[in-house]
Design brief:
By secondary structure, this protein is mostly helical. Helices cover about 65% and strands about 0% of the residues. It is globular.
Amino acid sequence: MSTSFDPPGRTPPPAVRRTGRLVLSAALSLYVATTGGSMATDIMSYEVTKGMVERRSVAMSFNVHDMDAHRGLDGQYYAPYGIGHALYAIPFYAAGRVAESAIGSRIARADAVRKAAFVGGSAVAAALVVWIVFWFAWRLAGDRRAAALTALTVGFGTLLWPYAKYGFNAPVAALAVAAGVYGVWLGTRADRAGALWAGGACLAFAGLVRHELALSAVVAAVWAYFERGRRWDATRRAWVPIGVPAVAAGLLTLYYNQVRFGSPWDTGYLRDSTATFGSALEGIAGLIVSPGRSVFLYSVVAVPALAALVAMFRRDRSTAWLLSAQCGSLFVFYASLTYWDADRSYGPRYLLPVLPLVCLPLVYWFAAWTGPARRWLAAAVVASVLGQVPGVLVDFTKVGTILDLGRIEIEERRWDWSRSGLTLNARASLRALPRNAQYVAGLAEPPPVQLPEGRAPGFSEQFGYSLDFWWLYLFYLGVLPGPAALLFGVLCFGGAGWLVARVRRSTRDP
């Protein structure tokens, strides 16, 4: 039974809605200011989006990773990912195409603007995660200031910030899971059918983004059964909104697989070794303590968040079980994979969808915010924010270009401190900061830019020396002079800072 401050269905006052809008705007503005445009490995999702918009096809235009496992029945190549991310990105791709037509000139390569718009979808998804966390936290504790602090901590003290910059599906997956769990929780607690259907639809969409996220819908359905007192008549009213979208998404996935690979069970992963299972104990240890992928190292605030989640069992046992089961089931699943480290990643990328949920109970600690605990929590938040900065300043996919590294073996990137993402990105950032300052100030000549053709590296990967910001790329491409690029950066960061200050002031208003 709920012990939250008030019935979850309470209509939020105008002041709360205003703070929520400011939190969303602040997160989005800083994400936009610091985005870079790297596609990373999700170039395949971009190709699917491009195919749907340009050719009304879900096939990729080429074999992106030179893997015969991705060849379909018709000889064309298909992404093994779920179709959800590609569907989500359609409006962003379309906006990029319109912008490209308006510009009327090439920037770096023919589809650079469309790719940048595709990546921009990650920034929007991440900002919406922050917004959902604000509302979830407010309905848990009824404290506007604590809810805003919780949301901004998730936004800038976890891996959500670095991955808001990239074309990975992780921010979209995090949004679908956060919105889905919130909708089911709110709909079940307040008996709101609309919220339940919205939550069920979001959880179903999460399964379309990443197949394994269907676990979230199963956990939500089990929780609803116990929350409704294990009464089948009441449970049925919750299970239909959760189950119908989940079944529809499952059928769509089976049909998608059949059309591409000739079997409803073949996603494309079954043909290679990237989705096999290994030692769960090794994965659990790696995701907890390894230098390359420890969730507590790359999101330090997860330490007090986990303690707050445990403490939440005394305040709201039912919600604590919901959050724990969601996070625990996905944690164990990813730890069981052979490649639990997610290969090309800054920190434990696979765990991004659970970080907003595990951090939610911090709202109670922010609401207390007194005594020595305040200093420890503030220190953890600051350390966690600083831990994201190396991943924001430099694109981890091109660190090797910056530092001229040789091949990094899988065990090295997992367990060797000197080859961990945090160490390499920090070193690369320290090298790149003074060099980029000299280039922008005109004190040194940046390396010449050679426009890539065909399958050459894209929008950001060609600049191994640059900080990973879009306005700096425009300078190196000759689109903006140095002072103008710097002005863009100052205005972006200044606007974000102003909005964060507005959030702070709004929480003090009556």
